Write the structure tokens for this entry.
Amino acid sequence: MSELVCVGAIAGSYGVRGEVRLKSFTAQAEAIAAYAPLQTEDGNRQFDLSITRAIKNGLAARLSGIATKEEADALKGLRLFVPRDRLPDPDEDEYYHADLIGLEVRDTGGTVLGQVKSVQNHGATDLLEIHGPGLKTTVLLPFTHAAVPTVDIATGRIIVDPPEGLF
């Protein structure tokens, strides 16, 4: 498990007074403010955060130390992290994306299919991006109970029952 968990990313500036457009990766978007201070992945910078309003595709927010549009623009693409111990324990059958990445994926017969490369969401449900031996491209598997009946973080393994022909 990763010591830091990505909880958001800066999409650019918002307005001319140093606000940023923030994409929150928390279950409730506004909950990201409760985990402040947020930090960069390397830990070199930390930011206190205050959300100013909801905007299309995200939040408008103020970060400590950012006062101008130019400073906000310079942060575009920056991912924001918190130490894992500041996050609540997930409920049963809930997982942090960071915990799933890198897990071995096997089918219900025990055949190794690959590893989870990323977890994506394009609106309907989470998708596991799986890459492995014998795959020319990555495979996107819906992260549903039907397709992914078993997730065992402790052993580092996911058991899947993919739709016919996906692999």
Remarks:
- The radius of gyration is 18 Å.
- The chain has two helices and 13 strands.
- The chain has a mean pLDDT of 92.
